[in-house]
Amino acid sequence: MHPTTDNRPSLLLAMGPGVDGRLLTGAHRARLAALTRTDPHLVAHDLTAPDARTAAALAEAELLLTCWGATPLTAEVLDRAPRLRAVVHAAGSVKHHVTDACWERGLRVTSAAAANALPVAEYTLAAILLAGKGVLRSARRYAELRTGHAWLEESAGWGNHRRTVGVVGASRIGRRVIDLLQPFDFEVLLYDPYVATPPPGVELVPLDELCARSTVVSVHAPQLPSTYRMIGAAQLAAMPDGTTLINTSRGSLVDEPALLPHLVTGRLHAILDVTDPELPPPDSPLWTLPNVLLTPHVAGSLGNELHRMADQAVGEVERYVRGEAFAEEVRASELRRSA
User: Fold this and answer.
1) Closest Cα to residue 160, out of 183, 191, 177?
2) Most exposed among 24, 53, 212, 335, judged by the fewest C-beta atoms under 10 Å?
3) Is the CATH number of domain 11-111+303-333 1.10.760.10?
4) Beta strand pairing call for 108-111 and 329-330
């Protein structure tokens, strides 16, 4: 009798300390163990100076399943992984760890950016609806007054009936936001220099026009040299009084020094899940302004939402094992204008 040959590909988990415990359930680990040759409890935190056990697994790995905190896959790291054929990223952007060396070696790459887009779009939808209803302002006023008040008189400009929402960037998240807005009574404007035909019911306009016509502006463009402070002094000045700026992309897309005077005077409102720098200085007005809602980069996947990204990643592993194309393959040419 000859032993049965195990032709399953070898897989290694590679991500930051503690990430796998939040990302993968027992069912995910069992599925990976059934699909591949892997130790579902061995997680490579550092591929630049791996211990003997990790080095041996890396040398055999045909697949890497990565997430936040993964080691950059430099040429030196890839030299230790001669069998590597694909990187399955169970999160959004791959720019932090997929290097030029990966593309030069012909590695296939996939990410769970589509799965991560949904919670960001949901956060944005909630922010748009709450902004239109004046929830932040009324909640703070209610806490200050603590008595009866003529709310109908004060709320004359509030409401979401036929409000104009401007979406900056037809990224995965931007398009998902547009999809989620469809059941509501909004006029939706879109700015994206790479889009020739907008989604149905959406008007494609220049950025300055979008800012001038919208009462909510939501930023979803990727962080690129060309998008640095794309919402600048001119765009902010063009926004009508009372406009709410929502940023769930990257803080660098908004010129915060130009934004602050509009916020301090109360002319504009802001819901910021990201800032530049990511943690505002302790004395920044953003912490205390009543017309600013500041959240700690929580729009993306967190808590049980990480399991959605794991579902997508395990699905991609299954497609690889079956010899199928990845559902969400990332190509080097796309990264020049995407997150």
Assistant:
1) 183
2) 53
3) no
4) antiparallel
What top-level class would CATH report for the domain 117-294? alpha beta
**In whole angstroms, how large is the CA radius of gyration of the chain?**
23
Is 297 one of the annotated active-site residues of the chain? yes
Instruction: Note whether 219 and 193 are within 8 A (CB).
Output: no
- Confirm if 196 and 225 have CB atoms less than 8 A apart: no
Which is catalytic among the residues 8, 96, 297, 337? 297
Residues carrying CATH 3.40.50.720, the chain = 11-111+303-333, 117-294
- Which is catalytic among the residues 76, 144, 154, 278? 278
* Annotation marks residue 80 as catalytic: no
Amino acid identity at 83: R
On whether the pTM is more than 0.90, the answer is: yes
Say what the pLDDT of residue 82 is: 98
Residue 37 scores a pLDDT above 90:
yes
Catalytic residue status for 262: no
What are the two backbone dihedrals, phi and then psi, of residue 111, each rounded to the nearest 5 degrees? -140, 165
